[in-house]
Amino acid sequence: MRANGLDWVPRVRETPAAALAGSETVGELVTVALAALAEGVRDRGGPIPAGGPTAADAAIADLPALPVEGIGAEAAIAELSAILAAGSADPVDPWCAAHLHCPPLAVAAAADLVASVLNPSMDSWDQAPAASAIERALADDLARLAYPSADRPDALITSGGTESNLTALLLARETLGADTVVVSGDNAHHSVARAAWLLGLPKPVPVATTDDRIDLGALAATLAELRRPAVVVATAGTTNSGAIDPLTEIADLTRAAGAWLHVDAAYGGALLFSRHRALAVKGLDRADSIALDLHKLGWQPIAAGILVCRDRSLTALLDTNADYLNAVDDTEAGLPDLLGRSLRTSRRPDAFKIVVTTRALGTSGLGLLVDRCCENAAAVARAVADHPALRLWAAPSLSTVLLRPTAADDLPPEEGDELVAAVRRALLDDGAAVLGRATLRTPTGTALWLKLTLLHPHATPADYLPLLDLVAEKADRCR
Ligand SMILES: *Cc1c(COP(=O)(O)O)cnc(C)c1O
């Protein structure tokens, strides 16, 4: 006989696979997972598995994602961690250098695990008392770092540059009016045009660029002709080349035109941490809003985006009310109101891993890592320039090196680009190296370049010299 009406409820709690996260349970599983991960990395043996999508798909072909019966926590995490590690494009390998895809610091990854175990949600104080205080402190300090002389700067934690750009354009539109138009160079990140689309703004007005930087004459002419409110989007560190727009001059032109200035510093903003290189982003503090991204130069696991605003009145435009999360009487009684700090509701405490990292390294330590990547890029660029079979695009502004096999230059433009693309795909298919690609304007059209985005803070120029030879050799063979 049943003692109570609940005896029939399956005892899921007692099956180890459904144990709740806690220091002991997670510790045991993490030990198992990390051993399997190491095994997967050994099996891969390079920056990416060979064989392309076919091989990657085959590795999980027999794996049901939604089995009716489970295999238990240890078996599942061991199996899938090994599969994921063996099949990853791994930025810990210096030859995995295509994108702004960084190898995360151990301290940040470990901190992210703590955040996962405690699972604070940043949409209300009663879900995140300490996490919200940590986020507030980080936002205040980052805001002061980016705007040293503003009275009331503020920062929001975002999921990355895409959300930062979207939020910035939303704040600009709310300030300037619904007929606001975005003015951006063709060097702007694709998320800028997408944000304009999403916000119902007109198609952005394009401004010409030279060497991947906004042309000041073209910007002045565009602003002079506009008869509506504008938000100028400049880039500090383009995704293609790492080029930094002339921020001070753009700020002067934008102010004179009464327009808003947003600087997308998702890549280059980390120069603020470097004592030697902060000058390269001089004028950043003239912007109304700035996108930063610490999952690029910053070595955080994704996500670690930040939107910094010149004044708190701008971030306040996101204020919103939901009685169950930030009731007016709760706020009046002193409970911090978090809901307006993001466009999202449930939200991970991404500030936690960032603050653990900065506490561990100091901003000077982060700056040193930024310097190393930039120095590496400068040295690798010199090696490209000296290489008999390669051509360098330009000396790097940040940590991106663009190169092209001279064999491609000997062909008609279209065939030359095809050769560059083929070299990249051949290296991917071999599992030898993950290089990026960038199409950049030439005086007569465009040209495709191979891109090395160097975010590995412990790699050295010597690590890349054999890669340069390999690119030249592949170009010879793909021809
Ligand atoms: C990476 C990047 C973005 C997009 O950032 P996510 O974090 O991927 O959303 C935007 N702008 C620039 C310049 C970037 O390099």
UniProtKB/TrEMBL annotation:
Family (UniProt): Belongs to the group II decarboxylase family.
A GO biological-process term: carboxylic acid metabolic process
Assigned keywords, A-Z: Decarboxylase, Lyase, Pyridoxal phosphate
Residue numbers bearing the N6-(pyridoxal phosphate)lysine modification: K296
Known cofactor(s): pyridoxal 5'-phosphate
GO MF annotation: an example: aromatic-L-amino-acid decarboxylase activity
A Pfam family hit: Pyridoxal_deC
Organism of provenance: Actinokineospora auranticolor
InterPro entries for the chain: PyrdxlP-dep_de-COase, PyrdxlP-dep_Trfase, PyrdxlP-dep_Trfase_major, PyrdxlP-dep_Trfase_small, Pyridoxal-P_BS
Name of the molecule in the record: L-2,4-diaminobutyrate decarboxylase
